[in-house]
Write a structure and sequence with these properties.
Length: 779
């Protein structure tokens, strides 16, 4: 790793990083003995405040030359994240004595040319920090948005509005144009990225097996096609004290692996770390416990509802079939190699006998004998790893909102194959982009599914009417009148005037019809956990501003924000050949993120997709009837009204409530049949279904390949061909239950509500055709 300076010099930092080993299946035999004794040590990371994660850490101290120090020093530490998404930075300001007065500092990251891909997706990021009088040092951590691949920035420091050039430097790495166009920086979308959490710096036996499995998996790596290759894996290791306090720090990982007792320790001793982990799971992450007594115990320790386990037998059977066929192919390669070496040794023996008969010098066959002995030993070791179906009953899975928890029972020794089975259950969850359901890099035509209807679109029928009127006035009316009066030459003046009036009227109508205010269309999905009362949210919002909004657009401080471009014609390769530019400026504070007016240009629809946790969102408390002739009662702990409430109790019976006011208690339910409930759920989704005339883009090939839809590409290469995921894990859950199945699980509910006030990201915006789905588990 390295960071670059503005003067072009490169400064090297020693940064630990997981090594990925490529090879064909037969190499596994050579690795078996080493793997059985391998015990990887955790990668050391920064994180005494529990905020920075990962092995891709970089740091710089400012000023670079200590002789330039003027009253204070600044230390920057950040995660060198290459793919799109939020990345953490930690800023430590230390005075040479104490600050004599309050100081307003501003740290600015300015994207540099060749530092981001596509080159138009970089954004200027401002981080204001205030140091109080008498304070000696201050440390802050911020999560910064990045809608591009790459991390090359120019870091600038301002004190009370004045730039301090001695506290400036270039950070990150620059991208070579050829590698940028070839998409070699989005490997995180293909790799299964693990985070192993141990009690301290020493991993226990089961975590060491996971470390071994990372190498085991990569020795079998052929390519990245899900149907005929092994899933590539990468991993980091940390101690529990290094876990972050912000759920977005986990987003660079697909799975967090730890022991059940350690999860309990985190819950008891560090509630903030425990909550961040739970927020991440609710938003789509996967948590794996290696020795939990049961899924119910696991869920209780995590602080979420214990739902029925998923039927994972088909996933496990498919994984076993895949691994068995792959294992048999590897065995055949080893056998064939031994057979070939024996044939060569036999031919050498015949050649040596003939040479001896002729009195010529013979060649030694010792090398062949050694090779055969080694290969036979490797084959014997390899045959010890033959897959079996013994893991079917030892792995349990449960969906938790958009995420998932997996439990491996401690009754059986953990084997490499058990982890391979677990890996095969991830499917689309391997890709952060597919989990989120938004592509901030390229965009696609699916953004058109949630546009504001009739806005920023040409009023075709009105224009046809105006043009028809123009034709009538110029033709039958004006021409006839002038010729009848003997002044046909006036048509040379009348026709242009009418054309100008018609054009101006169409232009004015187009502007006035869209209005001069700000309109928004919001699709808010809130999934509430009935035990904790916390919720995960996905908000898809489209905004249209008739007049440029000077205040920009504001989001919550703990939200993950991405723009969703309606891109129908530009490819990845074409975007990377365009000139460098920036999207705008973002001000990141502890409690808010403000994107300036450049992100919300006038008279154009702009779409954003936001994921955020909502703590203490509320619960729906269901009270079973005391007898069979009574109806159950429901109490709301939400601070907003619910409509069209559909409840399915623990016995599978459906109930409904037309409206439930905020905080309303002991409301009687109405019984529903399964058919009625299915119809109600289907209508609930279809009334607000995101739909547009969109043809899914495909990666086209002529003499040159071009990529126009990254989400479609990742679905083809790593997803399940029977279930395409384009809108993220939470939207997929909603669609599966309401539209596809027409059925919600026992112990859950679903309702409609008005969108919350805090998702009105632009002050004074008018909501158009918006909806909020509230669903979740019952306590």
């Amino acid at each position: 790793m390295s960071h670059w300076r503005g003067d072009g010099r490169m400064h090297q930092f020693h940064v630990g990083r997981c090594c990925v080993i490529d090879g064909h299946t037969f190499l596994l035999a050579i690795m078996v003995v080493a793997l059985l004794t391998f015990a990887a040590l955790p990668n050391r990371i920064y994180g005494d405040d529990g905020r920075l994660l990962g092995s891709r850490q970089q740091a710089i101290s400012l000023p670079v030359d200590p002789a330039d120090t003027k009253g204070f020093t600044v230390t920057w530490q950040w995660t060198a994240k290459e793919s799109a998404g939020y990345f953490p930075v930690r800023i430590s300001v230390k005075s040479t004595s104490t600050f004599a007065a309050d100081q307003n500092l501003l740290f600015r990251l300015v994207p540099v040319e060749s530092g981001h891909s596509p080159p138009q997706n970089g954004m200027v990021i401002d981080i204001p920090v205030k140091v109080s009088q008498g304070q000696q040092d201050l440390t802050v951590t911020r999560m910064l948005p990045k809608w591009s691949v790459g991390n090359g920035y120019e870091l600038k420091t301002y004190v009370e509005g004045s730039e301090r050039e001695e506290y400036s430097a270039g950070i990150g790495t620059l991208l070579r144009t050829t590698r940028r166009v070839q998409m070699q920086f989005i490997n995180d979308e293909y790799y299964l990225n693990w985070l192993l959490v141990s009690q301290d710096d020493r991993a226990d036996a089961r975590l060491q097996i996971v470390n071994q499995w990372v190498s085991y998996q990569n020795t079998q790596l052929h390519n990245r096609s899900r149907n005929n290759a092994v899933l590539p894996v990468s991993g980091d290791s940390v101690s529990r004290t290094e876990l972050p306090l912000d759920w977005r720090s986990y987003q660079i990982y697909d799975a967090v692996v730890l022991n059940h007792d350690l999860l309990g320790t985190i819950a008891d001793e560090s509630p903030s770390q425990h909550r961040a982990l739970r927020d991440w799971v609710l938003a789509g992450g996967t948590l794996v416990v290696l020795d939990g007594p049961s899924l119910r115990s696991f869920a209780n320790t995590l602080g979420v509802s214990a739902a029925p386990a998923l039927d994972s037998s088909w996933m496990i059977d498919r994984a076993i079939d895949f691994e068995r066929s792959s294992w048999e192919a590897g065995e055949e390669l080893l056998i064939e190699r031994i057979r070939s070496q024996k044939q060569q040794m036999q031919m050498m023996s015949v050649s040596n006998a003939e040479a001896k008969r002729l009195g010529l010098e013979s060649e030694s066959i010792d090398d062949y004998e050694n090779l055969i002995t080694t290969a036979e030993q490797a084959l014997a070791n390899y045959q010890l790893t033959k897959p079996s179906a013994a893991v079917v009953d030892s792995i349990g899975m449960q969906d938790v909102a958009a995420g998932r928890i997996l439990n491996v029972k401690p009754s059986n020794p953990l084997r490499l194959f058990d982890l391979t089975v677990i890996a095969r259950t991830f499917v689309f969850r391997v890709s952060p982009m597919l989990r989120r359901g938004v592509d901030p890099l390229l965009g696609d035509q699916r953004a058109a599914r949630w546009l504001i209807p009739g806005v920023a679109e040409p009023p075709v029928y009105t224009f046809i009417g105006v043009l028809t009127l123009f034709v009538v006035l110029v033709g039958p009316v004006a021409y006839r009148k002038t010729t009848k009066a003997g002044r046909g030459y006036l048509m040379f003046a009348i026709a242009p005037v009418l054309a100008l009036v018609t054009t101006a009227s169409m232009l004015v109508y187009g502007v006035v019809a869209d209005g001069f205010g700000t309109q928004s269309r919001i699709r808010q999905i809130t999934y509430v956990d009935g035990v904790s009362g916390d919720a995960a949210e996905r908000i898809r919002g489209t905004y249209f501003a008739g007049v440029r909004q000077s205040q920009g657009i504001r989001f919550a401080g703990d939200a993950e924000v991405f723009a969703y471009a309606n891109n129908a014609d530009k490819s990845w390769e074409a975007l990377n050949r365009m000139d460098f530019s920036t999207l705008g400026r973002v001000i990141v504070r502890e409690t808010s993120q403000r994107f300036d007016a450049d992100f919300l240009s006038s008279r154009a629809q702009k779409q954003f997709v936001v994921h955020q946790p909502r703590h203490h969102a509320g619960r729906l408390v269901f009270s079973p009837p005391p007898s069979s002739d009574k109806t159950p009662q429901v109490s709301s702990e939400f601070d907003f009204a619910l409509r069209n409430v559909v409840i399915r109790d623990g016995r599978g019976q459906y109930w409904s409530i037309e409206e439930l006011l905020p905080g309303e208690k002991d409301v009687f339910c109405n019984r529903m049949t399964v058919k009625t409930a299915s119809t109600a759920l289907g209508e609930m989704y279809s009334d607000h279904r995101p739909i547009a005339r969109v043809r899914e883009s495909r990666q086209t090939r002529s003499y040159n390949s071009s990529t126009r839809d990254l989400i479609a590409r990742f679905n083809r290469e790593i997803g399940d061909p029977n279930q395409i995921v384009t809108d993220g894990a939470l939207e997929r859950l909603l669609q599966q239950q309401l539209q596809v199945d027409g059925d919600i699980p026992s112990g859950t509910f679903c309702a409609i509500a008005d969108v919350s006030d805090d998702v009105m990201w632009v002050d004074g915006a008018e909501h158009v055709d918006s909806v909020r789905y509230v669903l979740g588990t019952l306590p």
